[in-house]
Design goal:
mainly beta; 9 strands; 1 helix; two-stranded antiparallel sheet; 6-stranded antiparallel barrel; Elongation Factor Tu (Ef-tu), domain 3; globular
Length: about 150
């Protein structure tokens, strides 16, 4: 069973892509995490090396069962190990628009020491999507067993 929500693309921290020029992550955290996730069976090389940050407010999300989970990934000498989960979803420009497969990228807040997202913000991994830019409206669909979008009202 799928559910969907309208979201807005917002600027991220620039950490995953390396655009913020943090010297600890010169090419971005995704490039640094990639070899450690590959050894655990998940190849990040097919994805754009940055996240799509979306704001679903005033809706909220409830995470369910991830399609992939990797505990205690030690990917940086500067940070403690992190837990990562990935949840499948579909992103499109409109309800009728072309669907693009994506994953919700969830470094668990309990093990993520910095760069937390505010409530209602999700980070997505996908191939390069032509209509994505800051301020774009998008539709996110997911199976309820993976993630549930719910009204806060």
């Amino acid at each position: 069973m799928q559910n969907l929500v309208k979201a807005k693309v917002i600027p991220g921290h620039g950490i995953a892509s390396g655009k913020n020029h943090d010297p600890r992550f010169p090419q971005g955290t995704l490039r640094m995490q990639s070899p450690f996730l590959t050894t655990r069976g998940f190849d990040l090389s097919t994805f754009y090396q940055g996240t799509i940050n979306i704001d679903i407010s005033p809706y909220i999300f409830k995470l369910g069962t991830p399609s992939l989970h990797f505990p205690q990934v030690k990917w940086s000498d500067d940070l403690p190990p992190e837990n990562f989960s990935f949840y499948p979803c579909i992103i499109s420009e409109s309800i009728e628009g072309n669907p693009y497969n994506a994953l919700i990228y969830w470094p668990h807040p309990s093990t993520k020491p910095e760069f937390h997202q505010r409530d209602g913000v999700l980070e997505l991994l996908s191939t390069k999507i032509p209509f994505i830019s800051s301020g774009s409206s998008v539709i996110i669909r997911a199976q309820k067993r993976h993630i549930l979008f719910d009204s806060t009202g």
